[in-house]
Amino acid sequence: MKTIIIISFAMFLAACGSPAANNSAANNTVSNTAPSPSVVPEFQAKAETVSIDTPDGVKLVGSFYKPQKPNSPALILMHQWTANRHTYDSFAERMNQNGYAVLSFDGRGFGESVKKADGSEVKVDLEKGIDPKLLLSDANSAVEFLSKQPNVDADKIGVVGASYGSSVAIMYAADHPKIAAVVLLSPGVNYFDNLPTIPAIKKYGSRPILLVAAEDDKDSALDVPKLKEESGNPNAEMMVYPAGGHGTELFAYTNQKDKAFQPLADLMQKFLDKALKG
Length: 278
Fold this sequence. Notes:
Blueprint: H1 2-16, H2 19-33, E1 48-53, E2 59-65, E3 72-78, H3 89-97, E4 101-105, H4 132-147, E5 152-162, H5 164-174, E6 179-185, E7 190-191, E8 195-196, H6 198-204, E9 209-214, H7 218-231, E10 236-241, H8 264-276
Parallel strand pairs: 3-4, 3-5, 5-6, 6-9, 9-10
Antiparallel strand pairs: 1-2, 2-4, 7-8
Helix pairs in contact: 4-5, 5-6, 6-7
């Protein structure tokens, strides 16, 4: 009888499993179903939509990436014709994460910059002509906005422009010595026949400037070395890619075979770090 009881008890334990085994199974179940902790990056760029008033009442809409540290360098990003500020989103986030305050904005008549304070529409029409004074005034409004933001070093502002935006960038910087560096993507010597850049690049002096184009954008590829030569600037740098298109399209160009043609974002950051952080 005693033997039967012992055997029965052993069979009961085998069927139920030991307490240790049951606890292990329970722990495994809890472990598998519990959510893993989220990985939060140290800093994640996030743009704030801002409105910038111009002297003639246009409301320029921009994306502002706040700096995280005092006395941060800053960038103004100006797009090409018919485009908008979002063509710079990836580059703006990258530079913000690397310590810059960044402001990209829609040029008047493009993107969201299509209204005046009184609600009237803002349109641009090349056939009717485009007033360079208004474009330069818009650039000045953007620079003044950026200069007044917390943690921005107003003496370390760089301006990036693409296509007609590059003309505005160098023409504005030529008359404003506090602009510390300029990057021109697909510049021309006289877009729309009223944005002359040779006089401006000469007046710009010896401040750092980077000129970029692609060979499949023939006119600009010819104008880049011409502008560099006309500048007489020992701190002027240039890059002409084998291909890549016009303006901010160049961000997508890669050349795995020739390491001399580093991606545009890498080229620009290296240049801007040297000019604004060095």
